[in-house]
Each structure stands twice: as structure tokens, then as C-alpha cells.
Amino acid sequence: MIDEEFELRFPSSAKLYGRAAGCLPSGITHDSRNLKPFPIYIDRTDGAHKWDVDGNKLLDYWMGHGSMLLGYNHPEVMDAIHASLARGTHVCGCTEDEVEYAEMVQRLLPTAELVRFTMSGTESVLLAMRIMRAAKGKSGIIRFNGYYHGWHDAAAVGSQPPFDIPSSGGVPAEAAQSVISIPPNDIEAVRNVLDHSSDIAGVMIEPGGGANGVIRPDVDFLKALRKLTQERGVLLMFDEVITAFRYSLGGAQEYYGVMPDITTMGKIVAGGMPGGAVAGRKDVMGIMAFSGDKKRDRFERAAHAGTFNSILPIAAAGITTMKIIERGEAIPYANRAGETLRQGMRDVLKRRGVPGAVVGECSTYNAFLGEEIARGIEERDVETIMGARGPTAMLMRKAMLLEGVDWMRTGGMISIMHGDAELEFTINAFDQAIKRVQAEGAI
Q1: Active-site annotation holds for 148
Q2: What's the predicted TM-score (pTM) here?
Q3: H or E element that contains 412
Q4: Which of 21, 133, 178, 403 lies in disulfide reach of 429, CB 3.0 to 4.6 Å?
Q5: Can you tell me the distance from the alpha carbon of 120 to that of 103, in angstroms, rounded to the nearest whole number?
Q6: Are 276 and 117 in contact (CB under 8 A)?
Q7: Are 415 and 66 in contact (CB under 8 A)?
Q8: Could you tell me which of 72, 73, 9, 67 has the C-alpha nearest to residue 40?
Q9: Tally of CA atoms within 13 A in the half-sphere of 411 that contains its CB
Q10: E strand segments, 93-186
């Protein structure tokens, strides 16, 4: 049985979980690490691998939750971080580093006329929503069912079914009421909201598709959305926390040829360190600037602070990572590897006669088992898709761990350190994991 073998393979993780349960809610510090009977505990990482506290070597597809396009511990990035630490971590003032950091984002992202740094992708979205509201003097934000925009209150409606109820307890009704979540890829639904409300400041969307591409992107819809928002004077925000500097050098906006008014970033922009950014048109981002008009600066300006925004080691990691990506080899390689992996996994499903679907774009992937989810993905049935990470998915993740691969619940992110041998290993592990799950009658 998978669970029995899992407990035998990872005994030190089981012991650490026992300790963690006494000091952390559910013994974890991130909801996605919830795994029964216990999560695994990691000791170190390198390249495309990590080692758990029992010494098991695992091929990794979490990749820093998507932040490690260059793999773990890239020597140039690590050298830059170490050099920055010799100067201090927090210097409590402006630095040349943050100027160079912002100039890098300006150079790479097509719509980055002005840039502001944050500490995470969640903070970036929260700030961008504030900027849109302040710039337009309106409160409403349109978003789409099943898309993920961070864990904050303002994005708690619409990420999980039922989509009109916040995905967490403790979210005030007032926060939920200002966000309108509607079905994805439906331009008439957007038009209908705009026709019936004069209080819409902006629309936000993951251009690469909802929930890391599980809800497949629709480029025609993105283009129609851009046209409609421009016609109605509504701002368009691309949440590129995952896609920026991964899909292409200029993010999903360059990849799809659709330009937003404002963009949120996280993960790769900070090179694996805790950081994020918001960038956009000068007239939109300018709502953050001090004008000297006391009334305007107090009541109309979009205020923003943040103790650790773009501190030295974060700027060093971000600058160095983007410089390496700018050389031009990293993204095309990872994208090719992504297609190789997705096709190899599809071949496994076909060969074994197992219904399912493998989806993703560029260097991302998600794999699901079962006829219902395969049909749901094909039809973009959001409720079916969002319900696919249940018991079978968790059993499959444990089976993959037993085969030496750790992925993010149902998929993951590919780095430049995932070579041909790693991809072949993953495809074989996927094949054997399915065999394990079939033996338990789960599929």
C-alpha cells in the first residue's frame, strides 16, 4: 500500500511532523504543504534536486513555487547574494541597486514604464488593486472563477468553488463585495458587468490561464478583453506572478502579444528570494507619486510601504537572475523541456489506457487522472477542474514521491537544470506511480 510504504520511506519526516504539530497549525507554514499522513521535510537543494531529512534524493518540480527557473543554488545568483550580504541586508535608505533592479524590469517587460517593488506576488496583486482603484476613483474589480491571485482578503472571492463565497474564513463581507468573479473566457459576461455597473476600476486575470494554466488560456479572449477594457476606460491588470520571465523574456504579455495597463510579478523577478513587483503605464503608476499637493497626497494617492522591499540581497538575486535570462538560452530551453515532459506523460496515459489529461504551457505542467477531469479540462468546466485536486491527486503525489519525484500536488515548474536524464526519469516515475495507484483501485 502506498501509505504504508510512504511511512517507511520517510520516518524522520514523520517525527518532525509530530514536533511541528505542537507549534504550527496543522504542522505547516503553507497550505499547499498539507499532506496526509504527514508532509516531507527537506534538508537541502541543488540544481533540480532536493534531499529530505532521511537522505532521500528527490527530483523536484516545486522549484521554489516557480521562482527557480535557473534551478536551485545557481552559482552566479548565489555569488551575487553573498556579495550583497557583505554590505548589509537592510540599509534603511535608497540604493543604486534598487534603481538598477527597476531598470532591468523596465528593459525586459514591454509595459513597465514605472516599477514598484514588494515582498511577494500576493503583495503585488494587493498593491495593483489599490493602484487601479485610486487611479480610477472607483472600487469594483472584475476577476475570473478559478484564477488565483494570492491569499489576501481582496482576492478571496472567486478562487475556489462556490465562487461567490470567500475561500477562507475571516474575510469581511465588505472586502468580498468589491470583487466580482465571473466565468472565464466569456467576453459577454464581462460586457454585462460593465453595462450594469459604473463603479468598475479594473479587470484582473492570469494571462497564462487559471490556477497555473489548469484552466487553459484563450488568446482570443485576452485580445477581446483588452479591446473592451480600452473602449470602456477600465484598467486591465495581468497577474504575471508565475508567467513573468518564464513564458518569454517579456512575460505572457509578450508571448501572447496582448499589453495590459498594469502587471504584477513575483517569484522569478526576485530570483528565488522573497520579493515581487508591480509595473505599468506611467499615468497609472503615477498615482503612487508624491505631488506636493497635501490634499491629493493624503486622500487620492495610492500609498505603499514595506520594510523589506528591494533590500540588497533581493535586488542582487533579481538583477542577476534577469541578466542570465536576458542572455536568451534559459526560457527557450525550459519551454522545450516542458513540451517534452508533457508529451511523454500523455504517451504514458495512452499506453496504459488511463483516462486523464496533461496540460500546461511553456515550462509548466499539470497531470490529472480520470475521465471526468479530462472532459472538464477539454470543456473548460471550471468547477470540475477545481475539484480535481482531491484524494486521487494526493495519492498520486505520494506515489510520485516513492518513485523519487516531488511535484506540486498535480504538476510543477521546469528549470534549466531539468536535463534529458531528469525528464526521462520523471516520465518513467509517472508510469510507475500510475501503476501503484491502479493497484490500489483508485483509478
Answers
A1: yes
A2: 0.96
A3: strand 411-413
A4: 403
A5: 19
A6: yes
A7: no
A8: 9
A9: 25
A10: 114-118, 140-144, 179-182
pLDDT of 67 > 90? The answer is yes
pLDDT value of position 381: 84
Catalytic residue (one of 148, 247, 255, 365): 148
> Could you give all domains of the chain from N- to C-terminal order, each with its CATH number?
2-72+329-439 (3.90.1150.10), 75-326 (3.40.640.10)
CA-closest candidate to residue 427, choices 323, 341, 307, 319 = 341
Whether 50 is catalytic is no
Backbone angles phi, psi at 200, to 5 degrees: -95, 120
DSSP letter (8 states) at residue 3: H
Interval 10-32: pLDDT, tens: 999 999 999 999 999 999 999 99
Exactly one of 52, 60, 97, 239 is catalytic; name it. Answer: 239
Give the single-character DSSP code of 215: B
Residue 440 to residue 394: CA distance in whole angstroms: 13
Task: Give the whole-angstrom CA distance, residue 152 versus residue 154.
Answer: 6
What Rg value do the Cα atoms of the chain yield, rounded?
A: 22
DSSP per residue, 240-268: -TTTBTTTBTTHHHHHHT---SEEEE-GG
CB neighbourhood size of 174 (10 A): 8
Q: Is 186 a catalytic residue?
A: no
Residue 133 to residues 38, 179, 284, 373: CA-CA distances in angstroms?
42, 12, 10, 37
User: Is the peptide bond prior to 162 cis by the omega test (within 30 degrees of 0)?
Assistant: yes
Over the stretch 357-405, which tens digit does the pLDDT of each residue have? 999 999 999 999 988 888 888 877 888 877 767 788 999 999 999 999 9
**pLDDT over threshold 90, residue 160:** no
